[in-house]
From TrEMBL:
GO terms for cellular component: plasma membrane. It comes from Methylobacillus flagellatus (strain ATCC 51484 / DSM 6875 / VKM B-1610 / KT). GO terms for molecular function: transmembrane transporter activity. The chain crosses the membrane at residues 20-39. It is found in: Cell inner membrane; Cell membrane. This is Outer membrane transport energization protein ExbD.
Amino acid sequence: MAFSTSSESDDVLSEINITPLVDVMLVLLVAFIVTIPVLNNAITVNLPKTAATQPPEPKKPVTVSVDAEGKIFVDKQEVPVAQLESELKSRHAANPDLALHLSSDEAVNYGVVAKVMASIERAGITKLAVLTQAE
């Protein structure tokens, strides 16, 4: 804050008064604190009592990666293009509910990625997620 002690200087002092801003923010904070629990507990339901059970373990998806040189990896193990389809078929036979994550380097040739996707389709895998990076 600037205070003027001499009467010689008649300059206008301009400062931002943040007190109203703080007041508004405190009112909004109190409003959110009051309304959030009300929204979460809008419907009261008495759940029935049962014996405790363990949820099924989530199955980790198989990751197929293509690096910048065009090498193909299935869960960090290098696999030649010719053997990719048979590898995926054997994994699909062991787990019919197999999920697959496909990631490829942006510098890789599209033809290699297209061959990998064709192998995935021929292996009978229907759950495929293509991984990308957010901008």
